[in-house]
Write a structure and sequence with these properties.
- The radius of gyration is 21 Å and the shape is globular.
- The strands form 3 sheets. The protein has a 7-stranded mixed β-sheet with strand order 2-8-7-6-5-3-4, with helices on both faces. Strands 9-12-11 form a 3-stranded antiparallel β-sheet.
- The chain is built from 14 helices and 12 strands.
- β5, α8 and β6 form a beta-alpha-beta unit.
Length: about 400
Amino acid sequence: MSLAARTARISVSPTMKVAADAMKLKAQGVDVVDFGAGEPDFPTPPHVSAAAHRAIDANFTKYTANSGTDDLKRAIVERHRADNGVEYSTSEVIVTAGGKQALFNSVLALFGAGDEVITHMPGWPTLVEQIKLADATPVIVRTHAENGFRLTADLLLGAVTSRTRGMIINSPSNPTGALMSEEEMADIAKEAAKRGIWVLLDLCYDRLVYDPVPHNIIGVLSRHNRDRAVLCGSASKAYAMTGWRCGWAVAPAALVNACNAIQSHSTSNVCSISQRAAEAALRGPQDCVTQMLDEYRRRRDRLYDWLSADSRIRMRKPEGAFYMFPDVSEFLSPDGIRTSADLATALLSDARVALTPGEAFDAPGFLRISYATSMKELERGSQRILEFLATRSSVRAASL
Ligand SMILES: Cc1ncc(COP(=O)(O)O)c(C=O)c1O
C-alpha cells in the first residue's frame, strides 16, 4: 500500500507496546500493578463535572466558535493574569483539544520544510513527531541525569543555526520532572528575541511543581519575547481532566488566527460541554489542584524511599509532574537483560509490573514509573520491582 511520505517519517509511540501487553494480561485476569499511566488517577473535581452536567441540561450541546467560547477564553486570560502576571486579550487565545492540539496547530502554523526546530531529550516524543509532521527538521539537545536533567540556555542556544525558527521547551518535563529555571528562560528569551526565534512552551505539567521555587517561565518569556511566545497549556493534568480534551494556546493574534484556520479545517471547536467544564476548573477554587499535588508529593517521597532500598537504582526526586525516572543501567548487561526495554518487558511478564522503558523518551537505560496511582499500588509495585531486581542480581552474580 502506498501511503503518504509523511507517515514514513513518524512512528507510533513505543510506550504503546508495554501498555498493550499490560492490557492483554489484565484482560486475562492477571493481577498487574500499573505504573504506566500518563494521567491522574483522581476523579475530575465534582464542581467541574457539575458544570458539565449543567451544560448538558441547558442544551449547551451545539457548535461553539471554532476558537472556543468567549467565557472560557476570558477564564484563560484571567488565570494567566492571576498566576503569571501577564496580560493578554481573548483575541490572543485559542481553545484546543488538549495541550497536544495547541502544540500541533502552532507547529503547523509556524514551521515548514527547511526550518530547524530545537527541542530536548529525554522528553515527550510527540514534540519531535509534530515537528516532522510539519516537514521541519527536529534538532535535539540532550539533558543529563548527572545534573538533574537541567535544560540550560547554553544547551539550547548552542544548537541554534541560521535555519533555526523555533524551540519547544517542556517544563516540568515528562519524563524527567526537571524544571527550567527563570534565569535560563530569560537568557533564552532575550537571545530568541534578538534572532527572531519562536519559543513554544509545553506547560502541560505547569501546575504540578512540588517546591515553592520560582517557576514563572510564562512571565519571563512573555516579558522578553512576547512577539514570538507561544504558551501551550492544558486542563488535563492539573484538574484530572485528560479525557475531556481541553487545552489552549496563548500567543500573538496573528498566530492564533492561523491556528484557528487550521483547526477550522480539522477538528473544529472543542466539545462544548468540555469547555464549560474547563471554565469551571479555571475559575473555581484552586485548592483541588493543591490537594492532588500534595498527594503526588507524598507518593513521590514514599516511592523514592521504597526504591532506595536497592542502591543500584539511581534516581532523584522529580521537581514536577508525576514520574520517577530511575537509571537502571546497573541491571543491564550483554549476557543478561540487555536494554531497559527488555527490562520493562521482563518486569511485566515476571513481576507483573507495567512501566514505560526509557527508550520511549529517547533515554535507554532508564525506566519511567508513574506515581499517578494509589499508595497501596505503589507499595505493592515497589515490592515486586525490588524482589525481581534482587533475583536478577543473584543471576548476574552466579554467572560471574
Ligand atoms: C509533556 C506533555 N505535553 C503535552 C501533553 C498533552 O496532554 P493533553 O493533550 O492531554 O493536554 C502530554 C500528555 O501526556 C505531555 O506529557
